[in-house]
């Protein structure tokens, strides 16, 4: 059909779905788009003016009985349709259908949420509009949140990847076909592009985008044929030239409504092709009237959530697996506070300034919902909320979980590209220098074969580590703390009880696990204290004494370069029996990693392994001096590096025989020494006040060691779901 006849076709038609739509309707995914009112509002300001009150007046769950699970919403995602609804261009609908929050189990022993348990962080679709309510009933279309994904990122997951997955499943693209994707710089567009390229459609992708910046982004992602989505005539000419001798594109994915892009896109489709409507502007009848030879459908994720939640849940779990396995790529986002900046977030959508799902609105402090006596008591006595549900694409709205029981947190590590570059340089310089130190005898023998400049740099590094005065250790600590950006940020979580304990002396903090490199111990404890810069690295409310120390394996102090490097930190001492007794007798506050080198030997990526079952020495010394033990567990430590697990027997033998371990590990593919990221969260547990027993018996040691292990497992189980590790178990070796 020519372009002239295309102009006469209806541009808004909301008739019943056609054949393709009917087939998709059985899946609850494709169907009839909603009707639009005749007079949409034309400005965001008047509509957004009352937006905050609209969001806060959503219905709450007020009566939760003993067999009910509720979801405390933590983040919601807003997309273009939320903007249209706020402007009044669609039927009455509350913004924020997709949300992220914490699910609370009211009652005991309930298993209504399937495999999900109280405390699990989940994401998904709320199934009904208005997820900015603080507490909602249990949501069936929710799955466990992928580890290493922040609240805001998770709120942008479902609609993006569910749309891409549903579109590709319906279209059944094959290698060699040609795809035209409108507004490809959006969240669903980028997901579709990535999925299409995985199916072999490299050179066969044609895309449109609004601004030149967005077009440049698509070209940087390897899309050769990119044109404007704002100038329809020029766009059609560019697309026809790009198609060359081909009759047309096999599949058109449309989300544009302005000008005559829909009929122009239909005219570019090859005979027998497919047309998928995302904008809900045309129905399958309108497409059939314009091009009877095409197969068409209208994609409605919200209808699928209502009619086929089981299939949607399976796709959500597939999305979570793809993110965890690195098969799917998360777009970056930007947050705005609620309710002050909600209008600004909608302005970003209205002006189409966002790329992908990058622009987000963060819900700030919302008043506590009136959730009934049972839920209120649950929130009061639980330190953290339980399960989480997140939401869709576009502009995201997020609320940090309320921290009851006085849980304090402090995070370091920037998120920008420059912060990561500086942090990577610091990490490589420090740990690269330590590795060079271990190999210094070999390097010394080979020095005569090296260029004199390389030898001079090596000598300067050696002299610097030896001659650097201890008074400059705080600058060295501040320098290396910038490397927290490489792990995705490091956060210390300290309960109120421990905050009060930190003001006193005479306590021992035990950190688990060691990991390949003790990053959690470094970023969330020792180096923060020695940096002596509380306004950046350690809030005054944490009250860590400046003279607290840590202990390291004695063998490290006998290796070249290691001992001078450790002295530069000025926060470590050899973990010998004499030093331990000296610190305990002085009633000093210090930290240890009980697992030590054995923890490194049993390290396994993605497994929570700790070497503790045969560790009785620190328990004995603590009993002799009546010390207070504080257990700290770092979530994310074991995910920073991969290691060769088949070397475990050899490394355990090396530790037992010689006192050191030789791990073979790697992090980032392009630079194995850099950690993989995902974030480090060190949680300080409750204090164990040990009695003073000058000469503890074997029964005393076994008893208090058992108490310690039980407290460690309880700490891990209490917080693992909060940080996305609900499916893991702590294994004590």
Summarize the structure.
Helices cover 38% and strands 16% of the residues. The protein contains 28 helices and 24 strands. The longest helix has 22 residues, at 417-438.
Order of strands, main sheet, comes to: 13-14-23-20-15-18-16-17
Question: How many individual helices?
Answer: 28
- Total discrete domains: 3
Radius of gyration: 29 Å
What is the CA–CA distance across the termini?
Answer: 72 Å
Low-confidence stretches: 1-68, 89-114, 128-133, 357-405
Query: Could you give the count of β-strands?
Result: 24
Fraction of residues in H or I helices: 25-40%
Q: Average pLDDT, to the nearest integer?
A: 66
Structure, explained:
The longest helix is centred in the middle third of the chain and has 22 residues, at 417-438. By secondary structure, the protein is α/β, with parallel strands linked by helices. The strands form six sheets. It has an eight-stranded mixed sheet, sandwiched between helices. A six-stranded parallel sheet has the order 8-7-6-9-10-11, sandwiched between helices. 38% of the residues lie in helices and 16% in strands. It folds into three domains: 3-32 and 160-307, NAD(P)-binding Rossmann-like Domain (Rossmann fold, 3-Layer(aba) Sandwich); 44-156 and 331-398, Alpha-Beta Complex (Quinone Oxidoreductase, Chain A, domain 1), CATH 3.90.180; 418-732, no CATH class. The protein starts with a helix and ends with a strand.
